[in-house]
Amino acid sequence: MAAIIRSALRASRAQSLTAAVLVPKVPQAAFRSFVPAFQQVTSRRAFSDVRYAPTHEWFKSEGGSATLGISDFAQGQLGEVVYVELPEVGATFTAKDTVCTLESVKAVGEVYAPVDCEVTEVNEKLNDEPALVNSSPEEDGWLMKVKFTGDASSLMDKAAYDKHLEAEKKEE
Questions:
Q1: What are phi and psi of 93, to 5 degrees?
Q2: Angle CA 81–70–51, to nearest 5
Q3: Which residue of 26, 75, 119, 130 pairs with 137 in a disulfide if CB–CB is 3.0 to 4.6 A?
Q4: According to the model, what pLDDT value does residue 146 have?
């Protein structure tokens, strides 16, 4: 009987040791810091062809159409968005015109047209959930879809935008 108990104890210790090696306990703080980094990497992959304006709008073009929103940096500077005033479908704008406003608990931010465009669709979800601009600025928090006629070649790719952000931070 004692041999059976010893054997069972050895097996349970080995199992505990194996479980500890395979699945170590991770402090929750470490896990919380990993999740945003993972989300940032996955969102960059999803929008690898996105272009950015110096005023922090992103612009994902597909032929003569594009989706427009604000960058993660811009939403961070703005703070929690509580109201989004979107334009009407069919509205036309020239480059650098204000296309919509975002009201946050800190300020009101303006979003500018990066190129000449006409609004073809707005993100209606933002009427009920304006905070999507904060939680998913480059995915679910898009602002509008547009048909554009202006030249988008002056917009920055991700690497150039990152350099632009670094230069802005140094100016502060």
A1: -140, 150
A2: 170
A3: 75
A4: 97
Backbone φ and ψ of 30, nearest 5° = -65, -40
- Please, which residues bridge with residue 110 across strands? 101
Q: Give which of 167, 103, 99, 162 is closest to 134, Cα–Cα.
A: 103
Instruction: Choose among 111, 109, 78: nearest CA to 95.
Output: 111
| DSSP-assigned beta bridge partners for residue 84 | 102
pTM given for the model: 0.70
- Look at strands 98-104 and 65-70 and give their pairing: unpaired
The segments of the chain whose pLDDT lies below 70 read 1-48
CA dist 106 and 11 (Å) reads 59
Tokens 């989300």, located at residue: 39
User: Tokens for 55?
Assistant: 């005023």
User: What pLDDT, on the 0 to 100 scale, is given for residue 49?
Assistant: 79
Angle at 143 between CA 137 and CA 146, to 5 degrees: 130
CA 168 – CA 141 distance, rounded (Å): 24
